[in-house]
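Table 4 source record.
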Amino acid sequence: MPEATPIGAGKTVLVVDDEDNTRQTIARMLEAGGFTVVTATNGAEALDRLAIDSEDIDIVLSDVTMPEMNGIDLSYHIRDRYPTMPVAIVSGDVSELEKTIIGRADVPFIKKPFHAESLYSAVREAMRRQSGGAE
């Protein structure tokens, strides 16, 4: 019996988080699911990476709380520059205001800490929403 195709096979995720351990943990989880992962330590670095590699990146997964440019602002910049790029937001401490803003940004949200299956589900949901339902 052939092995099942990994859930993330052929998909590249740009993980944006200013915390090294968190970024590396998320990257390992995604890689275990078959995703290819590239990383950025902040919003500006993520936008620079997208300017170079946007054709190769399938989704951006960003933390909310980061210095200089938070993940919500990053999601708006991405929507302006790359309107078809799916974005998902992760955070461990989300205020009511952030929940409202995230809802308006129309991006899936996942609360830290999370399990790999929850992460895969949020990534799939972001890609499904952006493609209009067809992943």
